[in-house]
Amino acid sequence: GGGGSSGGGGGGGGGSSLRMSSNIHANHLSLDASSSSSSSSSSSSSSSSSSSVHEPKMDALIIPVTMEVPCDSRGQRMWWAFLASSMVTFFGGLFIILLWRTLKYLWTVCCHCGGKTKEAQKINNGSSQADGTLKPVDEKEEAVAAEVGWMTSVKDWAGVMISAQTLTGRVLVVLVFALSIGALVIYFIDSSNPIESCQNFYKDFTLQIDMAFNVFFLLYFGLRFIAANDKLWFWLEVNSVVDFFTVPPVFVSVYLNRSWLGLRFLRALRLIQFSEILQFLNILKTSNSIKLVNLLSIFISTWLTAAGFIHLVENSGDPWENFQNNQALTYWECVYLLMVTMSTVGYGDVYAKTTLGRLFMVFFILGGLAMFASYVPEIIELIGNRKKYGGSYSAVSGRKHIVVCGHITLESVSNFLKDFLHKDRDDVNVEIVFLHNISPNLELEALFKRHFTQVEFYQGSVLNPHDLARVKIESADACLILANKYCADPDAEDASNIMRVISIKNYHPKIRIITQMLQYHNKAHLLNIPSWNWKEGDDAICLAELKLGFIAQSCLAQGLSTMLANLFSMRSFIKIEEDTWQKYYLEGVSNEMYTEYLSSAFVGLSFPTVCELCFVKLKLLMIAIEYKSANRESRSRKRILINPGNHLKIQEGTLGFFIASDAKEVKRAFFYCKACHDDITDPKRIKKCGCKRLIYFEDEQPSTLSPKKKQRNGGMRNSPNSSPKLMRHDPLLIPGNDQIDNMDSNVKKYDSTGMFHWCAPKEIEKVILTRSEAAMTVLSGHVVVCIFGDVSSALIGLRNLVMPLRASNFHYHELKHIVFVGSIEYLKREWETLHNFPKVSILPGTPLSRADLRAVNINLCDMCVILSANQNNIDDTSLQDKECILASLNIKSMQFDDSIGVLQANSQGFTPPGMDRSSPDNSPVHGMLRQPSITTGVNIPIITELVNDTNVQFLDQDDDDDPDTELYLTQPFACGTAFAVSVLDSLMSATYFNDNILTLIRTLVTGGATPELEALIAEENALRGGYSTPQTLANRDRCRVAQLALLDGPFADLGDGGCYGDLFCKALKTYNMLCFGIYRLRDAHLSTPSQCTKRYVITNPPYEFELVPTDLIFCLMQFDHNAGQSRASLSHSSHSSQSSSKKSSSVHSIPSTANRQNRPKSRESRDKQNATRMNRMGQAEKKWFTDEPDNAYPRNIQIKPMSTHMANQINQYKSTSSLIPPIREVEDEC
């Protein structure tokens, strides 16, 4: 050692005096190397002379002792004894192993030679028996075999004990590593003491612990030696060398009662095994983590070991210099020296002074620099590449969490969070955990940080069970999977999401999953997953199905797509003081759809009565209820009924569907008490009263807006009339005698569920029209579908567009003819799903061709739909909708001059169908009113599908929308002329909070699709025809959406300055019609007349909202069975008021009892008139749609003289060139 205690003294067993040097470092003693060779002639003068040297040296280097420990009388150093014990052990064992191998080799050679001689003798002596069996040749062989077996068993046992394949082996390996680290820590503690000192084993606690550790190491060394196959290589292993130079010195310490730090620092080399230990404990699993720990352990163990060697030689000095050139360095100063040396910094404040130390540094710089230059950058790279979001989710007590995965981008996440965390939701106490295999970019990361209290992100994949465990998927309330709506291959995207569902369900079958699907036909694959159960809350939101369903409803009631999209999207109220159309539109936008249990005060009342009470008194609009069937064995005990009519009475615990501005308003329906709130006029004062106990129905809470209160009963998901079990006591429900008589078992008019019109499969060649044939076929009141696509385009599923237009709650003569204009190659691929629907035609061509558009009479269509199947990977997102935008602008720029057709019809005695009020084809069936005359394409009703929301700015050139305006605030969307699939993103959060909302939306827009029908389509990929039975005909009895005009008809008196509330109550009481919105001219609020025909949507106006004559009213209309029995089911209106909006002033007439009795007579008289006209016309009769023999009959062209009323209308709407619409043929229904 290089120093001693400042108060150290002498005195020992021999009585010789020991002296201290005054300049020795405190807490260290210096051992005099010369005392072992010189006698007592050394004097104090020589000591003082030696102290004059600049370096702190001593002439009498001593061993620190205590009074109780007798040391050597001369203070002799015994370091060589410790080192000799290690060297003798190492080289002695190595010599024995080599000697054993040599003897064994010689013995083997000798036995091999002798064995050949004995074998030859045995063969010559005929050791075989006569029967061919061999006798035991030598009894020694059995002994050798037994000996070998015993040795092998011991070896195998030792191998099992030290291997990590068994629990015992893993415990032993981990224990050895932990004890090695403990021995290293003891070395760190002892490094503050002198290198060599006298210590009493019985009083030194650290020496006792170290002794116990090394005894264990010795036993473990023995096990390793027994289990080793190659003893020589085992003897030369690093771990063996560590044991040689650390275990024997401990026993020497006990024997000599002294301690020498020596080479105990070699225990640091055990750190190299740290990676293996962590793998044994199943902590390290990834290659990057294993590699990182390996690099760190090698680097740190080398660093600490080298520091220990420098600490030893610098504090001891060089032996050939009689240990006179030592310096006092602590171990941690040596660690610092090695680091600055490896990093080539070399400050020079600490350096090696001994020759051994400097020689070691020379070689260490070569290896240490190389290691530092290679290991450190790789370690930094691994740490830098380590997943920033690779932790695990820690569940918060009392707070649920959901997992969101799939297509995680800034747009999808921002849209989702904006709706999910909207302030209108009632107490959203849910944490959102995003899981994605790609780390978020800076913008997305900033979004997560802004919502850090409710949002967490983890990097991983749901296909990896380890990552699912990290996000605690088993305790999650639900898992939501987002789809990439803009991908080039929708089928591949759906396949990816289906695989995610399979992985999640395989990990935890009970988890509720809500996933987005792009293609309708891919929903069938979810049914193949055994644990997929829509009755338990699993839902698939098919974007194509809902998108095309919304567009189809716009064909029946223009603007409905906008209204429905706003209802399930959370929008904040934006107040505008100016009297503009935006003011009324935004007031309606703030409404959303909610569910709430009805108060017991409503029990026993009919649905219209409760609906009126809620609207007038509670300021709530109830549009549907959840009906609980009394038949417990019914497959669909709970069903959603939309505007069921006055036959149905409210039961206890009925769930109502409301349109309101926030969740707190809907609570009024639950808190309402007739005794307490009957005289209250302010609905805000309707709160929980104390006169009755609030009833929580079954196990469900009254509010359905939080995840705890979700409705998960499978029956809720059925369509309103999917089961014929509920038979009304209303004669309208049961088919009339005429209908029963017409039930022909050989004729199939509807599909097997009775929900859609159906016809026999048709070949596509039979429905293809050439341009000339289309021009000769006078089309009017039809739907033109402009489709862009080619043979390589992804299918968009046109069946979802056609099915709502072929719902069975329309009569056959009310069905709008559908004409597809597009590539025949693409339509051939779609035709397999369309060939069972009647009234469908195809015009091969392009929507950009004006000749094709004129051939299909686009100026006389009820709606023009523009779709595109070309999802190209274009860097510029604005170009994704280029075809749809060009087609829309092309149509709007067209001019029409059709006066010649009407003039010729008038000269021949024809009456334009648009002017014939007695024909149901000219009444606002489905809510679409006829355009008496259109001279410009701007007035053609168009709805355009957009992929990119920002492209909506290109549709209307005359609007003043800012390019950064949100989609729902733009004029095309408010008017119902544009629809983007992005609005459906809100359905994810709406479905999570209340899965009944998705069922209601799906029922409204799909025309009656049910899970049973989806399963049937999954099996056959087509609708199956069914026979007309009372049960299937009963399924037709469901309400539909329509638009009513206020210009004339039964509500004309309310059209001019009346209140919306009065209209609501009158329609509900008189006709069971449920009004829920207004489609108003954009400039109706202006005092001056305007030529603009654009309209916008007003959702759920208040009671006192003032009406104008040009308003169109959105309503839910009951199905009328008798309407199909007569062509004159819609009465003629006697009002002659004119429309300033260029719309015909007719209203869907509501048949009363009187006009029902007159129908057969009127029909009979008209049939006679038709027969007379047919005889006059001769060949004028034309059979239209010859490809539909089951449903179509010869169409009779009606001939009437032009009335004065019609002449006035023509004069009003014709332009300078006297435009007159062409003739539309009229078709009877079966």
Summarize the structure.
It catalyses: K(+)(in) = K(+)(out). The chain has 39 helices and 24 strands. The protein has 1230 residues and is of the alpha/beta class.
User: What is the 3D shape?
Assistant: elongated
**Structural class given helices, strands, pairing?**
alpha/beta
The number of distinct β-strands equals: 24
Poorly predicted regions: 1-70, 127-137, 693-745, 899-931, 1126-1230
In helices, the fraction of residues equals 25-40%
Note the gap between the termini. 116 Å
Average pLDDT, to the nearest integer?
75
What composes the largest sheet? Answer: 6 strands, parallel
Q: Roughly what fraction of the amino acids lie in strands?
A: 5-15%
Radius of gyration: 47 Å
Subcellular location: Cell membrane
Family: Belongs to the potassium channel family. Calcium-activated (TC 1.A.1.3) subfamily. KCa1.1/KCNMA1 sub-subfamily.
Protein name: Calcium-activated potassium channel subunit alpha-1
Pfam families: BK_channel_a, Ion_trans, Slo-like_RCK, Slowpoke_C
Describe the structure.
- The protein is an alpha/beta fold.
- Among the domains are: 1-77, no CATH class; 80-106 and 148-279, no CATH class; 284-386, Orthogonal Bundle (Helix Hairpins), CATH 1.10.287.70; 400-532, NAD(P)-binding Rossmann-like Domain (Rossmann fold, 3-Layer(aba) Sandwich).
- The protein is built from 39 helices and 24 strands.
- A six-stranded parallel sheet has the order 5-4-3-6-7-8.
- Helix 16 links the parallel strand 7 and strand 8.
- Helix 9 (287-316) packs antiparallel against helix 11 (355-385), helix 12 (410-420) runs parallel beside helix 32 (986-993) and helix 17 crosses helix 33.
- The radius of gyration is 47 Å and the shape is elongated.
- The N and C termini lie far apart (116 Å).
- Pfam families: BK_channel_a, Ion_trans, Slo-like_RCK, Slowpoke_C.
- It is found in: Cell membrane.
- Keywords: Calcium, Cell membrane, Ion channel, Ion transport, Lipoprotein, Magnesium, Membrane, Metal-binding, Palmitate, Phosphoprotein, Potassium, Potassium channel, Potassium transport, Transmembrane, Transmembrane helix, Transport, Voltage-gated channel.
- It catalyses: K(+)(in) = K(+)(out).
- Residues 1161-1170 have a biased composition (Basic and acidic residues).
